[in-house]
Design brief:
Blueprint lengths: L1 H10 L11 E3 L8 E5 L2 E5 L3 E6 L4 E6 L9 E7 L4 E6 L4 E5 L2 E5 L12 E7 L2 E6 L2 E6 L4 E7 L1 E2 L2 E2 L2 E7 L2 E6 L2 E6 L11 E2 L1 H4 L5 E8 L3 E10 L2 E10 L2 E4 L7 E6 L3 E6 L2 E6 L4 E6 L4 E7 L2 E6 L4 E2 L5 E2 L12 E4 L2 E5 L16 E4 L4 E2 L3 H4 L7 E7 L2 E9 L11 E6 L2 E7 L9 E7 L5 E6 L7 E7 L4 E9 L7 E3 L2 E5 L6 E5 L11 E5 L10 E6 L4 E6 L2 E6 L1 H4 L11 E4 L2 E4 L6 E6 L5 E5 L3 E5 L6 E5 L13 E5 L4 E6 L2 E6 L13 E3 L3 E2 L7 E4 L4 E7 L5 E8 L2 E4 L12 E9 L5 E9 L1
Parallel strand pairs: 61-67
Antiparallel strand pairs: 1-59, 2-3, 3-4, 4-5, 6-7, 7-8, 8-9, 10-11, 11-12, 12-13, 14-15, 16-17, 17-18, 18-19, 20-21, 21-22, 22-23, 24-25, 25-26, 26-27, 28-29, 29-30, 30-31, 32-33, 33-34, 34-35, 36-37, 37-38, 38-39, 40-41, 41-42, 42-43, 44-45, 45-46, 46-47, 48-49, 49-50, 51-52, 53-54, 54-55, ...
């Protein structure tokens, strides 16, 4: 990564914070963790953002990293309607404080990196917020936006997590797995040894874990009581005055306890129970699915579900439209539709959901196929999903797993209108053999899918679909035992081989069913492919093959002809740094390479974000990371471009982010030329002016109103940026400026006006 950072310092045209108007999210807002009220609206906190629901109008607005938040993976939230202040807590220990004056990032308390900093719960009381974490509890001063006293619940090197906490009468009560503890807010608050165990609360329940606590006039809490290693139930107790009482019910799995002036609201797995502060049950609600929280608003019950957003009492699903889940791996775009796979190459990665499948945006709304809902005991690991270009209602996806105990069978599945049609099961002697990886349609509309570990040996190859018999035909190339998603162009199939050095270039001569005239070559370290395997490939507008490896980037010119050469050599891209040559992306794993219509390259680096580069790679135009942009993760597993709109889609394990790029369909002539922002008001915007819709090569002259030339340039790739400086490098004066443009051979022209207000 040091090498990458050096490149950034010298070559990058870095924007410290990308314009929020150019970003949008495709996050899931299904899993509502917390609901709070704010006048005429409800605020719901989900995994990657919050949304506002206005019951009076039905309007829904969302707030995420795309338009103001600083992180993803929300783990806690609270809101004070009086001060109009909300606090979001994240799994990494950071917080966002939302105020009428802006959103402010609060970094975690600086402690050892191996300590669990996750924020488990937030409770606002006036100008104070009690922050429950994986290492203890903190008092946060809201007006100053700074931490006050922190009690580290530690004995030696072991820290005790606080599940939730609340202030009542200047005393902080915390719920932990070892009891309810309390301490007055005073000079000894930070001393863990001074915290008292409320023995009158836990009584003799030495096997109880305390999970939730809340208080106004009444204090109530939930505790998990273990009967044996596999059996437990929940109990809710409350105190009014000086005595504690127990609600007369054994709960299944309490997710939340909320106290109002007159009620106690218990959210229990899929049921909501509402009690008076005297413990008498007033109402129940069966959500019919797992839920996280509930709230009474204007005498109506609203429930935060795990897969349907907010439910009202009529079980109407209230949420922004989005995919079923945030996990994403590979994307397919076609005709304003999006398909998202959610798998991962390692079956041992427990951080990734195993039963998700794929999701589909049909141009109007997101669809989660019934196949993945019907039997959640089935293990799916969908590495890829691709639509048929000639009939997008027909879709194929690959399942990478075979786990008979989970009723999961690796294979290639056919869907029609998101309904299951058939599975092309792949027979093998054991669960590890003949694993499908990724698919592609070639120009003849043939479905071709890579397969690895054929019969357990040196078995990288491919399947193709024989439409006449509706069967898969396998071709074993007897090379290596790994594969990635393939690339195909002009009858040549490119199969990256991860982990083991190699790239297969297989020329099937545009006759996939006839192998008699086929030929192929495997690029290895003898062809200047570095050790560690090939991860990604792309072919650009010049028919150069860009090869992303585990430790660098290579380029091969005219790859189809190279198949016939004895020893073709790939090239490093060398850039100049402080007068010395430096290899571009040396030692970096290249997860994805995508070429836009203007031949610029989007390159994803594992742990390093995304680079947007000039056509030959000698200049970095943008570098987007989790820190300087709304990207949710610095490891982007796929990049896809909608050339009609210029939108660039980034897939990560934490969700999909979309960037409005400057390059749309680029030809030798002009498209729909657009200047933005326009007018350019310095008090509102201090960046460059962008012009898109240009020809592949455009000659540009910019003049003032009197016809004096102030700037000239040649733009390649379909767009241009002007920093509003004249030929002397001085910012131009306020006024109207004319942009005169011609394409490379002068057969097409375009003009535009730019208004500048300094």
């Amino acid at each position: 990564m040091k090498k990458i950072l050096l490149i950034i310092l010298v070559f990058i045209t870095l924007i410290s914070q990308a314009q929020s108007s150019k970003w949008s999210d495709l996050f899931s807002y299904n899993n509502v963790k917390v609901i709070r009220e704010d006048g005429n609206r409800l605020i719901a906190a989900t995994e990657n953002g919050i949304f506002y629901y206005y019951p009076g109008t039905g309007e829904i607005k969302k707030l995420s990293k795309a338009n103001g938040l600083h992180e993803v993976k929300i783990s806690a939230f609270d809101y004070n309607a009086t001060s109009q202040t909300g606090i979001i807590g994240y799994e990494n220990g950071f917080m966002d404080v939302i105020t009428p004056n802006g959103i402010f990032l609060i970094v975690d308390i600086p402690i050892s990196s191996n300590i669990n900093k996750r924020i488990n719960h937030i409770s606002i009381n006036g100008d104070k917020a009690i922050i429950s974490t994986g290492y203890g509890v903190s008092i946060f001063n809201i007006s100053k936006r700074e931490f006050g006293d922190t009690a580290f619940f530690s004995i030696g090197t072991t820290y005790e997590a606080v599940n939730s906490a609340v202030i009542k009468d200047n005393i902080v009560y915390v719920a932990t797995n070892k009891g309810i503890k309390f301490h007055e807010i005073n000079a000894t608050f930070a001393l863990y040894s001074e915290w008292n165990l409320a023995s009158n609360i836990i009584e003799t329940d030495i096997n109880a874990e305390f999970t939730k606590i809340d208080a106004i006039n009444t204090i109530a809490f939930a505790k998990k009581i273990k009967i044996d290693a596999n059996t437990f139930y929940f109990q809710v107790k409350y105190r009014t005055g000086n005595s504690f009482s127990t609600i007369n019910k054994q709960f299944v799995d309490v997710q939340d306890v909320r106290v109002t002036d007159t009620q106690i609201i218990v959210t229990d797995k899929s049921q909501v129970y509402i009690y008076g502060t005297n413990g008498i049950q007033q109402k129940t609600f069966d959500a019919g699915e797992n839920i996280n929280t509930a709230l009474i608003y204007n005498n109506g019950l609203f429930t935060g579900t795990q897969i349907s957003g907010i439910y009202n009492e009529q079980k109407n699903s209230l949420k922004p439209d989005g995919p079923f889940n945030n996990t994403s791996y590979k994307l397919s775009l076609l005709n304003n539709q999006i398909w998202v796979s959610t798998g991962a190459r390692s079956e041992y990665d427990t951080s990734i959901p195993k039963r998700v499948g794929y999701y589909h945006f049909d141009g109007n709304s997101w669809i989660y196929p019934d196949l993945f809902k019907q039997d959640t005991s089935i293990y799916y690991n969908v590495l890829d999903v691709v639509p048929n270009p000639s009939d997008p209602t027909e879709v194929f996806f690959v399942n990478y797993y075979t786990f008979p105990q989970y009723h999961s069978f690796k294979g290639i599945y056919k869907m029609s209108n998101d309904n299951f049609v058939k599975s092309y099961d792949i027979p093998s002697a054991n669960i590890y053999q003949n694993r499908p990886i990724g698919c592609v349609f070639d120009s003849g509309n043939n479905l071709i899918c890579t397969v690895t570990m054929i019969d357990g040996g040196l078995g990288t190859g491919y399947y193709y679909l024989d439409r006449a018999t509706d069967k898969l035909i396998m071709k074993n190339l007897n090379v290596s035992n790994g594969a990635q998603k393939p690339l195909v162009k002009d009858g040549v199939l490119y199969i990256p081989i991860p982990r083991i050095t190699g790239l297969i270039m297989y020329d099937y001569n545009n006759t996939i069913s006839n192998t008699s005239d086929d030929k192929f070559k495997v690029l290895t370290n003898q062809n200047n492919i570095p050790e560690g395997g090939v991860v990604s490939t792309a072919i650009d507008k010049n028919d150069d093959l860009w090869i992303g490896t585990a430790i660098g980037l290579r380029v091969l010119s005219n790859p189809k002809s190279a198949i016939l050469e004895d020893n073709p050599q790939t090239d490093n891209i060398i850039i100049e740094e402080n007068g010395l040559g430096e290899e571009l992306f040396r030692d970096a794993e290249i997860l994805q390479i995508t070429v836009d219509s203007g031949n610029q390259k989007w390159v994803s680096v594992d742990g390093g974000g995304v680079f947007y580069m000039s056509s030959n790679g000698d200049k970095t135009i943008y570098h987007f990371t989790k820190s300087n942009s709304p990207l949710p993760n610095d490891s982007v597993t796929d990049i896809q471009i909608d050339e009609k709109t210029g939108k660039v889609y980034f897939a990560t394990i934490d969700g999909i982010m979309v960037y409005q790029g400057d390059v749309t369909e680029v030809t030798s002539n002009f498209g729909n030329v657009l200047v933005y922002p326009n007018p350019v008001v310095y008090a509102q915007y201090k960046g460059n002016v962008r012009i898109r819709g240009l020809a592949q090569k455009t000659n540009i002259r910019i003049t003032d109103a009197a016809g004096n030339l102030v700037h000239s340039a040649v733009a390649n790739g379909g767009y241009f940026e002007w920093n509003l400086n004249n030929k002397r490098g001085v910012r131009v004066a306020s006024g109207i400026y004319y942009v005169l443009m011609t394409n490379e051979d002068g057969t097409d022209t375009a003009t535009a006006k730019i208004a500048v207000v300094n």
